[in-house]
Design goal:
It is a single chain. By secondary structure, the chain is mainly α. 78% of the residues lie in helices and 6% in strands. The chain has five helices and two strands; from the N terminus they run αβααβαα. Helix 1 packs antiparallel against helix 4, helix 1 packs parallel to helix 5 and helix 4 runs antiparallel to helix 5.
Length: 192
């Protein structure tokens, strides 16, 4: 269960990182002759939106070299972030499906163990002679061996799933990092 919670937490962090990276904005460096209205016409929002997106800039006194950020995200960045987000959601849903399947198998194994225990109790009650007692003990040994094999198989399956989940987490982290770096490069190129 802890592994499942880690996967969900990781996916939420990755989705937040992609969503915030989609907020990459275009910018303009103030030059000689720029006015607040001229800058506003570059980005086409209202002057109030421009002020809200650039709280450190005093639009009454513009300083050459200051950078003004467009308050609207670029459509290309939003599309890339949405595609990356959908990919992560798809991988997360496949992890959850696999996890649920393993939990169901574990529940079935526990039910089988309970049935075998009940059958072994019935055999114990029915054994009233020495020969029958030996048969019951042999049957119990076989049943316990089956239980141990089933439990061992379940544990191995869950560990294998945890390894797969860790590998998928690494892939998701790499994808998120690649997307963030790509967006950072595109923002850097636009600002130059």
């Amino acid at each position: 269960m802890r592994g499942y919670m880690r996967v969900v937490l990781f996916a939420l962090i990755a989705l937040c990182a992609i969503t915030t990276s989609a907020d990459a904005r275009r910018s303009h460096t103030i030059k000689v002759g720029d006015t607040p209205d001229a800058i506003r016409f570059l980005f086409t929002p209202s002057l109030d939106e421009l002020r809200a997106a650039n709280p450190k800039i005093d639009f009454a006194i513009l300083h050459i070299g200051d950078t003004v950020v467009d308050p609207r995200p670029e459509p290309k960045d939003i599309l890339e972030a949405e595609l990356a987000k959908q990919g992560i959601e798809t991988k997360l849903s496949s992890i959850i499906i696999r996890h649920d399947k393993l939990i169901n198998e574990l529940v079935e194994s526990n039910a089988m163990v309970a049935r075998l225990k009940a059958e072994s109790k019935l055999l114990t009650i029915a054994a009233d002679e020495g020969a029958l007692y030996g048969i019951v003990l042999n049957a119990l040994a076989v049943i316990l061996a089956i239980i141990i094999c089933v439990l061992f198989w379940t544990i191995v399956s869950l560990r294998g799933a945890d390894r797969k989940i860790l590998l998928m987490q690494k892939e998701l982290a790499q994808t998120r990092n690649d997307n963030v770096l790509s967006m950072a490069r595109s923002v850097k190129l636009r600002s130059v």
